[in-house]
Amino acid sequence: MAAGGELQLLGSWYSPYVIRAKLALELKGLRYKYIEQDLFDKSDLLMRHNPVHKKVPVLIHGGKPVCESLVVVQYVDESWTGTEPSLLPADAHDRAMARFWAAYVDDKFFQPWRALMRSTTDEQRAEAFKRTIPHVETLEGAFLECSKGNGFFNGDTVGLVDITLGSFLLWFMVVDEVAGTTLLDDAKFPGLASWAKRFLTLDVVKRAMPNVEKLLAHYKIFLVKLANAPAGYS
Fold first, then answer.
1. Secondary structure class of 140 (helix, strand, coil)
2. Any idea of the CA torsion for 98, 62, 19, 111, to the nearest 10 degrees?
3. pLDDT in tens, 172-194
4. Would residue 60 count as lying in a domain?
5. I need a surface site. Which of 48, 111, 132, 205 has the fewest CB within 10 A?
6. Quick check: 61 pLDDT over 60?
7. 142-172 per-position pLDDT tens digit
8. 106, 141, 234, 125: which is closest to 183 by C-alpha?
9. What span, in angstroms and rounded, lies between the C-alpha atoms of 101 and 107?
10. Strand 58-61 vs strand 64-67: parallel, antiparallel, or unpaired?
11. Cα gap 117→211, rounded to integer Å
12. CA-to-CA distance for 173 and 170, rounded, in angstroms?
């Protein structure tokens, strides 16, 4: 292992943000120890290594923590620069655009989709889905621009934007199944739909992803709890 020191990853199996960290580590072929965390009973290890946000993922490298999923992905790429694939483009402008679109996923796309994920009635789902679709349209355009005719946002290999959006793909599937929606519709968004299928067939991606049936069961339990929660529950 380059860059010195043992790697540990603190995470929760169902978190798309943890999936991002796993994807980065798997893509670089790095060995690491995964330590599952209960976010409703946070461990001393988690609280000690992420006292600010108290969230996962936390990558511990040689005893030093790195927090926040996009920071973790870029840290892994920068710490193991000699290990392929590179998760960010070589060209400075292309790198800037990759960071821009990764931030777009979290800052713009996620909020309306989160409302869809947390909807418990057909009316709520219809409204949230309507609000989410314009952002999917924007990401379809981003894929066509960034991929430059290749299979991934990063070109012919998986990179930062692929990891950022791809970490949600199984969540898209389980939410679609419950809500009766199709977020990445083949007819409306052929670029993204093809990209998603291609991404999920990769062995490295399969190793980082949770079991979809387990995730679906987890999501259904979450919705029941949400539907019966007191007002103001988050």
1. helix
2. -60
3. 999 999 999 999 999 999 999 99
4. yes
5. 48
6. yes
7. 999 999 999 999 999 999 999 999 999 999 9
8. 125
9. 10
10. antiparallel
11. 18
12. 5
Mark whether 97 and 198 lie in a shared domain: yes
Residue 101, Cα to own-chain centre: how many angstroms? 13
149 and 51 in a common domain: no
What share of residues in the chain are helix, strand, coil (percent, to 5)? 55, 10, 35
Whether omega before 134 lies within 30 degrees of 0, making that bond cis, reads: no
Q: Could you count the other beta carbons within 10 Å of the beta carbon of residue 119?
A: 20
- Nearest in space to 66 (alpha carbons), one of 58, 78, 74: 58
Cis peptide before 85 (omega within 30 of 0): yes
Beta bridge mates, 60: 8, 65
Q: Which domain holds residue 185?
A: 92-224
- Amino acid (one-letter) located at 216: L
Residue 226 CA to residue 17 CA, distance in Å, equals: 21
DSSP element (H, E) containing 214: helix 212-227
Query: Exposed e or buried b for every residue in 153-189, given b needs 16+ CB within 10 A?
Result: bbbebbbbbbbbbbbbbbbbbbbbebbebebbeeeeb
Q: What is the DSSP letter of 34?
A: E
